Amino acid sequence: MYIGELSKKTGVSVKAIRHYEDIALIKSPQRDGKYRVYDDSYIQVLGMIKAAKGLGFTLEELRTIAKAKTQEGLVPMDLLKAELQKKRTDILVKKAELEKRLEEMDELEISVQHYNQCLLENINQ
C-alpha cells in the first residue's frame, strides 16, 4: 500500500509517517519507483507508536526502544518493561499531585464556607 492508504488506515498523518522514517523510528519501506510501498506490518507498528505516544512516550524514547531491536526485529522486553515502569512511576507521581490538589480544593471550599458563616454571624449580631 502507498503512504496515503497507510495514513488513512492508521490515522497517522503522511507527514508524521515520513518524519518517523526520517528519524529512524520506523524502517524505510520498499520502493516502487518513486513511491514508498508499505506492507501490513506498518499498520501494527504505527498503532503501537500511537498508543505509546498516548501514554506519554516521546519520539526520542520510542527511538531508543526501536534502536535496540534485535536482528529479527524483536523489541527487547526488558528495555520495554523498564521504560513502561518509568512511565508508571511518572503517572503515579502526577496522580499524587492531582490528589493533593483535590484535597486543597476541598480545604479551600471549607475555608470559604467558614469565612462566609463568620461574616453572616457578625452581620446578625
UniProtKB/TrEMBL annotation:
The lineage of its organism: Bacteria, Pseudomonadati, Pseudomonadota, Gammaproteobacteria, Vibrionales. Pfam families: MerR_1. This is Putative Transcriptional regulator, MerR family. The keyword DNA-binding applies. InterPro entries: DNA-bd_dom_put_sf (IPR009061), MerR-type_HTH_dom (IPR000551), MerR_fam (IPR047057). The keyword Secreted does not apply. Residues 1-68 form the HTH merR-type domain. One of its GO terms (molecular function) is DNA-binding transcription factor activity. Residues 81-108 form a coiled coil. Keywords: Coiled coil, DNA-binding, Repressor, Transcription, Transcription regulation.
